[in-house]
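Customer escalation, tier 2.

The customer says the design service returned an amino acid string that "doesn't look like it belongs to this structure." They asked us to rerun it and document both sides in this ticket. The original structure tokens are below, unchanged.
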């Protein structure tokens, strides 16, 4: 079973710059069992990227369309995974206003125009 510290070590070994920008789409199922589940995965990413910008896709193309043309940044769920839904609801997360291909971000640069704070 993975732990938060193991995931942080993996990010370090991969050479992910903690002061840069990390745009990632990841699968909780592909990671395997993690003590603390999805929140621990996101905690590890945020801890590692504390000096940079962490971005995850929060696409809504499965929910927004001709029959439902409105995307609400606070309430419309992401259709691309459990981790993206956990991330978009975290305090301080910013979600872009794109109606079908939104992104959520936290960290340095997340306050860009065209996003809504959660």
């Amino acid at each position: 079973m993975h732990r938060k510290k193991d995931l942080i070590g993996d990010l370090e070994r991969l050479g992910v710059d903690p002061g840069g920008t990390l745009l990632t789409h990841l699968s909780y199922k592909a990671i395997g069992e993690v003590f603390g589940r999805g929140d621990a995965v996101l905690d590890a990413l945020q801890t590692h990227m504390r000096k940079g910008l962490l971005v995850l896709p929060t696409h809504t193309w499965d929910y927004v369309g001709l029959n439902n043309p409105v995307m609400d940044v606070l309430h419309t769920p992401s259709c691309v995974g459990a981790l993206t839904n956990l991330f978009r609801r975290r305090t301080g997360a910013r979600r872009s206003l794109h109606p079908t291909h939104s992104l959520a971000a936290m960290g340095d640069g997340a306050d860009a125009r065209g996003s809504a704070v959660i």
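Tier 2 assessment: The sequence is consistent with the input. The two ends are 31 Å apart (CA to CA). The chain has a mean pLDDT of 91. Sent an explanation to the customer and offered a walkthrough call.
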